[in-house]
Amino acid sequence: MPSEFSYDDRYGIRHGKRWMGPAIFCAITGIAWLMWAGLHHSNPPIRYSLISYSITSKREISVRYWVQRHDKNKAVICTLIARDFNKNVVGQIDDEIAPGLANLERTTSVQSRGPAVNADVIGCRLK
Q1: Is 65 inside a domain boundary?
Q2: CA 65, CA 95: separation in Å to the nearest integer?
Q3: What distance in Å separates the CA atoms of residue 117 and residue 22, rounded to the nearest whole number?
Q4: Exposed, middle or buried by CB within 10 Å (0-12, 13-18, 19+), for 65?
Q5: One-character DSSP codes across 1-61
Q6: How many CB atoms lie under 10 A from the CB of residue 106?
Q7: Hey, which of 14, 38, 62, 82 would disulfide with 91, CB 3.0 to 4.6 Å?
Q8: Over 77-114, what HEC string results?
Q9: Residue 1 forms part of a structural domain
Q10: pLDDT per residue over 38-82, tens digit each?
Q11: Bridge partner residues of 42 (DSSP)
C-alpha cells in the first residue's frame, strides 16, 4: 500500500522552529534593556519643579521652586529665566544651592531687562 506523496519528504524540507532561538534571545535582550532604561531614567540625580512665580516689580519676578537631590553633600546650580509677553527671555540667573538638605523649596528673585510676565526653571545640574 503506497503512502501519501509529500514534497517535503522528497526534497528533505524539515519544518522546524529555527526562528525560536533568535526570537527568545531578542526578547530577553529587549526586556533587559527596557528594564535598565526605565530604572535608570526614572531615578535622575536631581529633580526640580516650578511651584509658582509672582511679579514683584516691573523689572523683577520672584520664582518659587522645589529641588530634590540624591546626594545632599553636593552643590546644585539651577538656571531660572524670566520671559516677556512675546516669550523672549528678558532675565536669567544661575541660582547656586549649597550642600545641605536633600529636599528643599526655594524662592529666588530674577532681575529682568523688561517687563516679565512669566518665569521658569530651565534646569538644575550638579556643580
Answers
A1: yes
A2: 11
A3: 57
A4: buried
A5: -PPPP-HHHHHT-----TTHHHHHHHHHHHHHHHHHHHHHHTS-SEEEEEEEEEEEETTEE
A6: 16
A7: 82
A8: EEEEEEECCCCCEEEEEEEEECCCCCEEEEEEEEECCC
A9: no
A10: 998 888 889 999 999 999 999 999 999 999 999 889 999 999 999
A11: none
Residue owning grid cell 520671559:
83
Q: Structurally, how many domains does the chain consist of?
A: 2
Question: 24-43 pLDDT, tens per residue?
Answer: 999 999 999 999 999 988 88
Amino acid at 30: G
Place of cell 506523496: 5
Calpha distance 86→117 (Å, rounded): 9
**Count of residues for the chain?**
127
Name the amino acid, one letter, at 84: D
Cell 525560536 -> residue: 20
